[in-house]
């Protein structure tokens, strides 16, 4: 699964993008966040304030209880500040 | 006849008048144009530039979705949405929304709605570069922006 | 520092971009420009032109009063109000309002307010000249316009 | 007193502007309208629908119960349709 990070989430994780193997027990976005936090300190720091993280599945906004389904790309980022 | 919004995500600057002209050229049913231009402020001289990061692909897709919502909600004759990314110094333009309609209320409401939605849903993030040379920080989302966007929720 | 609105009543056309540029030139504290342009519609091909009659002297005075109210109510960095008179064919511009502010909400609300107030208080009257050659009639004031203006009443 | 008319009020009265002597009993705008209606058929027709008439005293909007005071110019016109 391809994972992308933006803004300070990207800075904390330390990479823009990565491909990871997700265990079969990971069904939802929340499960995925839980898994990512176990990878290393950077990921743990990035997801420390879970409420501040927004998620897109295949470029659509979703809530963290969303099923990953067959999504190819998951993106994590802070609340948006465009405009 | 359905309206196809013009949506662009680009690094380069844009020309609001040229965009407005495209929405009125050869038409005689446009009674109202509301044009919102968002510019980079210097924050009392402390800001050297804003760096706008975006999610390529999703930024365009989300702007198209937001524009489509506006077209479905108001009787518009045309709609243009342009958002820049990259480093933008104070005084330069960041975002453009133009809503054209036969009637002013529709044009005003659509432009207002688009800016509110764009602020909370379009995947762009601003980082400040300070005149002092220090790195600055990511601009925090404002709760007012969420409140503004909520004004448009349907029951 | 108080803002002096630019107010003009004129027969000739105007250039919205040139007016907008005047509100941002040399300034770095403008974050939002809302530009409303009102155009003459052809009413499904039936209208040859609108004839705009005005009350010289009072038209300017009333626009200045309305602009002054907006400046007192919203933290604007600049404000421009231009209204044309005389014969105006479909597709041409009739009225321009530009509100500049550090923040978008103020710019949107001020421009919206100005258009509502201008519609019900500025001494201009539209007469239709029809393509059919018949004399046409005076455009009637809309009750929606009064309702729109009432939205801004303070308690 | 100088009186000005605009739009269909002007068309019905038949003049853009006129100077008239007002009787001493005319104190308010409403009194003035009452007086004007007695002048001739055109004035009577112009002020037939009194509710549709708007008034300015020296270029300020007023209601019909306003005192004429020392106003030099009174203007009558329909509801405005600018913008």
Shape of chain A: globular
As a whole number of angstroms, the C-alpha radius of gyration of chain B is 16 Å
User: In angstroms, what separates the terminal alpha carbons of chain B?
Assistant: 28 Å
* Cα gyration radius of chain A (Å): 12 Å
Q: Main sheet of chain A, how many strands, which sense, barrel?
A: 5 strands, mixed
How many alpha or pi helices of chain B?
Answer: 4
How many helices of chain A? Answer: 3
Ends distance of chain A: 31 Å
- The average pLDDT of chain B is 94
Write a brief structural summary.
Chain A has 83 residues and is α+β, with helices and mostly antiparallel strands. Chain A has three helices and five strands, in the order βαβααβββ. Helices cover 27% and strands 23% of the residues of chain A.
Write the SSE topology:
The complex is a heterotetramer, with two copies of chain A (83 residues) and two copies of chain B (155 residues).
Chain A: E1 2-5, H1 7-13, E2 17-19, H2 29-37, H3 41-46, E3 54-57, E4 60-62, E5 73-77
Parallel strand pairs in A: 1-5
Antiparallel strand pairs in A: 1-2, 3-4, 3-5
Chain B: E1 6-10, H1 16-24, E2 32-39, E3 47-54, H2 58-73, E4 76-84, E5 86-88, E6 93-101, H3 104-121, E7 124-130, H4 143-150
Parallel strand pairs in B: 1-4
Antiparallel strand pairs in B: 2-6, 3-5, 3-7, 4-6
Helix pairs in contact in B: 2-3, 3-4
């Amino acid at each position: 699964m391809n994972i992308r990070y933006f803004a300070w989430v990207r800075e904390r994780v330390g990479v823009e993008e990565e491909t990871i193997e997700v265990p079969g027990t990971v069904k939802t976005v929340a499960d995925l966040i839980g898994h990512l936090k176990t990878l290393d300190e950077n990921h743990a720091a990035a997801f420390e304030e879970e409420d501040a993280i927004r998620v897109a599945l295949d470029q659509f906004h979703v809530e963290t209880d969303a099923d990953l389904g067959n999504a190819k790309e998951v993106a994590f980022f802070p609340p948006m500040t465009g405009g | 006849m359905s309206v196809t919004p013009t949506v662009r995500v680009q690094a380069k600057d844009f020309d609001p008048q040229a965009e407005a002209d495209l929405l009125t050229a050869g038409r005689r049913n446009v009674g109202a144009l509301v044009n919102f231009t968002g510019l980079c402020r210097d924050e009392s001289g402390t800001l050297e530039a804003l760096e706008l990061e975006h999610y390529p692909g999703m930024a365009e897709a989300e702007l198209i979705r937001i524009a489509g919502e506006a077209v479905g909600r108001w009787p518009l004759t045309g709609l243009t949405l342009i958002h820049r990314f990259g480093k933008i110094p104070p005084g330069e333009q960041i975002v453009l929304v133009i809503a054209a309609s036969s009637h002013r209320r529709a044009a005003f409401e659509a432009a207002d709605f688009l800016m509110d939605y764009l602020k909370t849903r379009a995947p762009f993030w601003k980082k400040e570069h300070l005149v002092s040379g220090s790195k600055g920080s990511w601009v925090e989302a404002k709760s007012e922006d969420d409140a503004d966007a909520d004004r448009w929720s349907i029951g």
